């Protein structure tokens, strides 16, 4: 009887995966026809087949299957983004990236928290908790957008790198504020800074070591015995980088991003790969990242709670408007404009102000708060979903248009 029940669950899960893949393929074709980033259509498709509308797919946010897809999918997309980063470009903009990913997250959290206190009438600490959840940008959303819309290198790579590095800061601030809100501790700037340094440095070190080893085994003149298994190496190393960093209580997402940077810059490390091997690996990574985008954003769409959103709709929209049009511009101009080395133009800064989509990482943080029964968790989850929908539907769809207007598209 047990084996029969297990078999039925397996069949049901397989059917759901088939639905997601089929719908994702159709949505990808539709996105290409209407010329919008595919994550937008994936999200809308997920909302259509979710419990709120057609009720074809209902995978709970706290289920093991959903968490597996979120962790591995986000990690692989982030690895793909890291592989597209060029070290020569990153060398030019690293100061801006570091300041945006640290001080910038604090600025965004503070301004958004103030808006939540004013519009939602939340206690100050709960409002700051909401601001902290929304403060980090989302690499799983931004990387696919910049893969499809060819923006000038240094702008695209600065925004993608910021999104990879600021998830650690966002999580640290969120759980620090949560400790104060639940009466479990007091805020300590010194402890928070040490925690950030630990998460960042360990993540960078793990990603760097694994990335270098992977480059040796697939591109070294003598030791490239895994060259023909390069696609499998990326799968193993992405999992290994994330789990190793997570086991050491550091940023798994930072580890996989740095791993991607190392593997994407094998020539800079002194290794060489044949053109056919490079194309084979690029095709595999591109296809795998596409499948991960389908699953992440279609499932994210199915989990939108329309009833919860309606309870705080207009106040939540007001908070997100301040978040998009006040908090982000203030963050960009305060953190990037002083960087004399990068010498950002006003057009580049304006573009960076608009590209800060919210997605998987804030959604996951909000879900964790609901599971922990944190103060105001339901309101935080509601506003987070409003932010996800507004930023993806408004900002992702207009990225190419704005880049063209600001003359930032690459020929």
Structure, described:
- α3 (64-83) runs parallel beside α11 and α9 packs parallel to α11.
- The N and C termini lie far apart (62 Å).
- The chain is built from 17 helices and no strands.
- It has helices at residues 2-34, 38-49, 64-83, 87-101, 103-120, 124-134, 139-148, 153-181, 189-219, 230-247, 252-264, 275-302, 306-311, 313-336, 346-354, 360-371, 377-405.
Question: Would you tell me the structural class of the helices and strands?
Answer: mainly alpha
Mean of residue pLDDT values: 85
What is the CATH class name?
Answer: Mainly Alpha
Using the alpha-carbon principal axes, give the shape.
globular
* Biggest sheet statistics: none
Q: What Rg is obtained from the alpha carbons, in whole angstroms?
A: 21 Å
Treating each run of at least 4 consecutive H or I residues as one helix, how many helices? 17
Secondary structure: helix percent: over 70%
Q: What is the CATH architecture annotation?
A: Up-down Bundle
Q: What's the N-to-C terminus distance? A: 62 Å
Domain module count = 1
How large is the share of residues in beta strands?
under 5%
CATH topology: Na+/H+ antiporter like fold
Poorly predicted sequence stretches spanning 5 or more consecutive residues: none
Order of helices and strands: HHHHHHHHHHHHHHHHH
In short:
With 411 residues, the protein is mostly helical.
Structure keywords:
17 helices; Na+/H+ antiporter like fold; mainly alpha
Topology:
Elements: H1 2-34, H2 38-49, H3 64-83, H4 87-101, H5 103-120, H6 124-134, H7 139-148, H8 153-181, H9 189-219, H10 230-247, H11 252-264, H12 275-302, H13 306-311, H14 313-336, H15 346-354, H16 360-371, H17 377-405
Helix pairs in contact: 1-2, 1-12, 2-12, 3-7, 3-10, 3-11, 3-12, 4-8, 4-14, 5-6, 5-14, 6-8, 6-17, 7-8, 8-9, 9-10, 9-11, 10-11, 14-15, 14-17, 16-17
């Amino acid at each position: 009887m047990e084996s029969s029940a297990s078999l039925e669950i397996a069949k049901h899960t397989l059917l759901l995966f088939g639905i997601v893949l089929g719908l994702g393929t159709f949505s990808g074709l539709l996105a290409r026809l209407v010329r919008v980033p595919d994550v937008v259509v994936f999200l809308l498709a997920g909302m259509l087949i979710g419990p709120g509308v057609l009720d074809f797919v209902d995978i709970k946010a706290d289920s093991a299957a959903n968490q597996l897809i979120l962790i591995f999918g986000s990690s692989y997309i982030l690895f793909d983004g890291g592989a597209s980063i060029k070290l020569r470009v990153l060398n030019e903009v690293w100061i801006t990236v570091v300041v945006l990913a640290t001080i910038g997250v604090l600025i965004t959290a503070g301004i958004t928290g103030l808006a939540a206190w004013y519009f939602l009438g939340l206690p100050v600490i709960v409002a700051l908790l909401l601001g902290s959840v929304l403060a980090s940008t989302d690499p799983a959303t931004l990387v696919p957008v910049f893969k499809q819309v060819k923006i000038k290198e240094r702008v695209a790579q600065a925004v993608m790198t910021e999104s990879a590095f600021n998830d650690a800061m966002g999580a640290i601030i969120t759980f620090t504020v949560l400790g104060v809100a639940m009466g479990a501790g007091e805020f300590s700037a010194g402890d928070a800074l040490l925690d950030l340094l630990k998460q960042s440095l360990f993540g960078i070190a793990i990603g760097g070591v694994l990335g270098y080893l992977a480059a040796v085994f697939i591109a070294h003149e003598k030791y490239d015995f895994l060259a023909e298994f390069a696609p499998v190496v990326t799968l193993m190393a992405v999992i290994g980088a994330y789990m190793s960093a997570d086991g050491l209580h550091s940023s798994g997402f930072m580890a996989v991003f740095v791993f991607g940077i190392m593997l994407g810059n094998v020539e800079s490390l002194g290794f060489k790969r044949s053109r056919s091997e490079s194309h084979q690996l690029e095709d595999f990574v591109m296809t795998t990242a596409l499948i991960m985008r389908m699953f992440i954003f279609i499932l994210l769409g199915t989990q939108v709670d329309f009833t919860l959103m309606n309870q705080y709709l207009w106040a939540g929209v007001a908070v997100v408007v301040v978040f998009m049009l006040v908090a982000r511009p203030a963050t960009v101009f305060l953190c990037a404009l002083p960087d004399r080395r990068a010498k950002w133009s006003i057009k580049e800064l304006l573009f960076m102000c608009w590209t800060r989509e919210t997605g998987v990482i804030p959604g996951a943080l909000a879900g964790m708060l609901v599971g922990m029964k944190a103060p105001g968790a339901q309101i935080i989850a509601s506003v987070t979903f409003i932010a996800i929908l507004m930023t993806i539907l408004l900002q992702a769809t207009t990225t190419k248009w704005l880049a063209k207007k600001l003359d930032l598209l690459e020929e």
